[in-house]
Specification:
- The chain has 196 residues and is mostly helical.
- It has eleven helices and no strands.
Length: 196
């Protein structure tokens, strides 16, 4: 049972209008946003930040951003965000082979060196204590420019917020996210856990 009950999608009309963004991303408005709207300034600020972070300004694709989010969420253990991130990666065109083998991104041939550098950056930046070092920096600069690195860290930081929000809230997970979690992550033990 969640710490705080989500409100109706009609509770705050400005949030509802902004949240239409998630219909493309996930196919539904996440319960996390429906909980945030108990303080509409938070829900609106979060949605606008999400839109800014997920905008494509360079070569970091929408699919890669969602895989970066998955690695970050996997590192922190947030099952809610793991399922959301893999679902969004699928909806934004990640290759089937990447979705099926996200756990093995470091060695699987479906991932190239630039993607591995980005995903390793996500893992290192999501650890406590932070593990971003000169080796991570060198690998990033072999493939990405500074603006693209800022985009990636924007995703990692956004999901740091979401991982803490959803794990602390015990946010109820939506059926579509459960389906994606089971399909792509279940073979490695993913389950909804406290997000019932």
């Amino acid at each position: 049972m969640p710490l705080v009950t989500p409100l109706s999608a009609d509770h705050d009309l400005e949030t509802k209008e902004l949240a239409e963004f998630f219909n493309e991303t996930l196919g539904f408005c996440p319960n996390s946003v429906l909980t945030m709207q108990r303080r509409p300034a938070i829900s609106k600020a979060f949605i606008n930040l999400n839109k800014a972070v997920m905008a494509n300004e360079g070569r970091v694709t929408s699919a890669l951003k969602r895989m970066i989010a998955w690695v970050s969420s996997n590192a922190t253990g947030c099952r809610y965000c793991q399922a959301h991130a893999i679902r969004a990666a699928e909806r934004y065109g990640a290759e089937q082979e990447q979705l099926d083998n996200i756990w093995e991104y470091r060695t699987h041939p479906a991932f190239n060196d630039a993607e591995r550098a980005a995903l390793d950056f996500s893992l290192a930046a999501s650890m406590v204590p932070n593990a971003v070092d000169e080796h991570i920096k060198t690998r990033l600069y072999e493939h990405w420019n500074e603006g693209e690195i800022v985009e990636m860290l924007g995703v990692i930081s956004l999901f740091g917020y979401l991982n803490r929000w959803n794990d602390s809230m015990g946010t109820s997970i939506e059926e579509g996210a459960v389906e994606s979690g089971n399909q792509y992550l279940g073979k490695h033990g993913w389950e909804k856990g406290k997000h019932v």
